[in-house]
Amino acid sequence: MPVTPAAGETSPARPRQDRVHYLYLAVVAAVALGIAVGLAAPDAAVELKPLGTAFVNLIKMMISPVIFVTIVLGIGSVARAAKVGRVGLITIGYFMVMSTFALAIGLAVGNLLHPGAGLHLDPSSTATAHKQAEGAEGTTDFLLGIVPDTLLSALTGGEVLQTLLVALLTGFGLQQLGAAGAPILRGIEHVQRLVFRILAMIMWAAPVGAFGAIAAVVGETGWSALRSLGVIMLGFYLTCALFVFVVLGAVLWFGARMNILRLLRYLAREFLLILSTSSSETALPRLIAKMEHLGVSRPVVGITVPTGYSFNLDGTSIYLTMATLFIASAQDSPLPVSAQIPLLLFMIVASKGAAGVSGAGLATLAGGLQSHRPELVDGVGFIVGIDRFMSEARALTNFAGNAVATVLIGHWTGEFDADRSRRVLSGADPFNEATLLDVPQPGDAGTAGTDPTRTAPDGPATAPDGPASDGRAPDKASA
Fold first, then answer.
1. Is 244 in contact with 397 (CB distance < 8 Å)?
2. I need a surface site. Which of 52, 163, 227, 316 has the fewest CB within 10 A?
3. % helix, strand, coil for the chain, step of 5
4. pLDDT 10s digits, 424-474
5. What is the domain range of residue 29?
6. Helix, coil or strand: residue 152
7. Alpha-carbon distances of 154 from 16, 68, 99, 163, 220, rounded to whole Å
8. Secondary structure (3-state) at 479
9. Do residues 352 and 70 lie in contact, with contact meaning Cβ atoms separated by under 8 Å?
10. Residue 470: per-residue pLDDT
């Protein structure tokens, strides 16, 4: 006989289920179904292209809002981080250098592999490109075109560079306002949450868009499409692996005399968590706690880790440039070096905060194409079919990059206990998995772990002058 709760009592709340993995499974199923339809009924599959086009249009709709809110809030984060002096400046400088390097690596690998060659996705794209080249504006007209007619027209006209200019001016203006601009900045944070919530809703249409785009491409090109998709996926995973073990490994060894393999083994549980969720955001509180336990001082961790989740997205940077070259090559409109350099400069700025939620990376990718080669934007509908397969590598690379950055910046600023790190990495000083609290150890004066009264590491105090870890949109680095 069922027992009902007594008056005044409430039944225990059921834990909220994470439905994101259902979206992942739906995209996988949609891609498989699209391939099957494209091979079995190619003529009918080509007619499904409008499904992919509609999804791309939804993503394009979000380009300007995503870029505006992320750039404005990003500049605010830089300002707050810079107030702590040398730590903030070194942090931002390192993030800019590594992000630029990751973007350049993506361009180099994309030029080497040419993964989209031979697909001929849209025969009309070449003619369109020639028409646009013939009517291309001069340098003066191009620069004047960056300036919008009105402040609001930059957000409604679909011109990405105009949106970027207004976002930069708004961010610097809020800096000049100081404390008076804080309420406006908080309001923009709320707008960011709304924008990312809308984008998350749009991403639930990804299975439909992926099905239509993949079916149409496979129906039009046959097995060539599958080969090209496999090439870019394999190339991306190998590039991310080389970046982590070779580039980050070398920087960590020469910068802090630490072995990258030992650091990755120390963070093994976090990597498993990220692998299961395709999001490095899920491991943010644990990364903060483990970096403090490793011997990095609390102020450095509080600045570097939250800021890095918006500004140090190495995996996302590699993805953006490789995906751009793939789309251009697949549509028979390869980008010359003269076009790749401006694209690289744009991505350096636009990639900061690009991983707000799942799909924000697609919006940034579409924004880069829209600003440089508008005729290629429709190719985003093709890349979305494999985007979820590449999200794990993006998230893992982003996470590894932020862990390495925290150790390096702590070492360079003298806020790192090397002796303690050796004890931790050797297993002599294990991390408390039960509480995530760093228990003070004898002889740890001046480092993380000396304050027995501090609270959990994911609380507001972890980032005293940096962006709060809970003030940004969820799912950082899966996009």
1. yes
2. 227
3. 70, 0, 30
4. 998 888 877 655 555 444 444 444 343 433 333 333 333 334 434 343 444
5. 20-125+150-462
6. coil
7. 39, 10, 27, 5, 37
8. coil
9. yes
10. 40
133 part of a folded domain: no
Q: Which amino acid is at 355?
A: A
| CATH code, 422 | 1.10.3860
Phi, psi of 147 (to 5 degrees): -85, 120
Q: Which helix (H) or strand (E) holds 304?
A: helix 298-311
Residue 437 or 284, more confident = 284
Q: Are 78 and 89 in contact (CB under 8 A)?
A: no
Which has more pLDDT, 301 or 249?
Answer: 249
Give the pLDDT band of residue 121 (cuts 50, 70, 90).
low
On whether residue 140 sits in a domain, the answer given is: no
Q: Nearest CA to 24 among 218, 150, 203?
A: 203
Residue 467 placed within a domain: no
Q: Tell me the average pLDDT across 348-374.
A: 66
Predicted local confidence at residue 261, as pLDDT: 94
3-state secondary structure of 274: helix
What's the pLDDT score for residue 21?
63
CA distance 177 to 33: 54
Burial 204-221 (b: 16+ CB within 10 A, else e): ebbbbbbbbbbbbbbbbb
Q: Which two tokens stand for residue 134?
A: 């013939």
Closest CA to 460 of 285, 318, 309: 285
DSSP characters for 59-120?
HHHTHHHHHHHHHHHHHHHHHHHHTTTHHHHHHHHHHHHHHHHHHHHHHHHHHHH-TTTT--
pLDDT at 13: 47
Q: Is residue 6 part of a domain?
A: no
Comparing CA positions, the residue from 372, 369, 370, 364 lying closest to residue 394 is: 364
Q: Which helix (H) or strand (E) holds 288?
A: helix 284-294
* Structure confidence by residue, pLDDT tens digits, 406-422: 999 999 988 889 999 99
Joined tokens for residue 259: 């072995």
